[in-house]
């Protein structure tokens, strides 16, 4: 055996690498990224970044606790994102509100007969595929109840 322990472990991992395991790894990475994005979005709703012209620096204001600090919030250190300034937050809110309240924003779409038929076919196929998947899963797995819990 000429492999080092690290190389041996790598080879063993590659041997046990299945498409299911690869799919799980991709899903885990995607969910981690989405979770972090949601966390950043939550933090943006709490913190404001405000410029102090006397110091020439930004300080951070927690809108819930009303505390201010010169240090960047822990979550944003090393993250490629930042908190909104009050002006940026106001602009973003105005854009959202104008999109919601726009006169033509809730106007129903006029479908041609062909577009409507294509759309209905797609919806039907998606529903059928979901039902097929559920029946396959039900055949493959059975629900188990733990009597002790």
Verbal overview:
By secondary structure, the chain is mainly alpha-helical. The chain is 54% helix and 9% strand. It has a three-stranded antiparallel beta sheet with strand order 1-2-3, with no helix packed on it. The mean pLDDT is 81. It comes from Phytophthora sojae (strain P6497). InterPro entries: WW_dom (IPR001202), WW_dom_sf (IPR036020). Residues 47-75 form the WW domain.
Strand order of the largest sheet: 1-2-3
What is the assembly state of the chains in this entry?
Answer: single chain
The strand count comes to 3
Low-confidence stretches: none
Structural shape:
flat
Structural class: mainly alpha
State the helical fraction: 40-55%
**Can you summarize the main beta sheet?**
3 strands, antiparallel
Brief rundown of the structure:
This protein has helices at residues 5-15, 19-44, 86-101, 113-140, and strands at 47-52, 57-62, 68-69. By secondary structure, it is mainly α.
List the helices and strands and how they pair.
Layout: H1 5-15, H2 19-44, E1 47-52, E2 57-62, E3 68-69, H3 86-101, H4 113-140
Protein name: WW domain-containing protein
Domain WW: 47-75
Pfam families: WW
Question: Main attributes?
Answer:
54% helix; three-stranded antiparallel β-sheet; mainly alpha; WW_dom; 149 residues; WW_dom_sf; WW domain-containing protein; flat
């Amino acid at each position: 055996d000429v492999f080092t322990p690290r190389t041996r472990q790598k080879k063993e991992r590659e041997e046990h690498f299945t498409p299911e395991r690869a799919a799980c790894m991709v899903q885990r990475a995607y969910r981690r990224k989405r979770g972090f994005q949601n966390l950043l979005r939550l933090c943006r709703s709490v913190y404001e970044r405000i410029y102090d012209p006397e110091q020439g620096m930004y300080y951070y204001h927690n809108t819930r606790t009303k505390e201010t600090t010169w240090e960047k919030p822990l979550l944003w250190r090393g993250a490629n994102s930042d908190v909104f300034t009050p002006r940026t937050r106001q602009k973003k809110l105005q854009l959202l509100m104008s999109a919601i309240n726009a006169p033509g924003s809730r106007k129903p779409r006029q479908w041609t007969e062909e577009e409507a038929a294509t759309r209905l076919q797609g919806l039907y196929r998606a529903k059928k595929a979901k039902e097929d998947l559920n029946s396959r899963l039900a055949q493959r797995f059975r629900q188990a109840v733990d009597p002790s819990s």
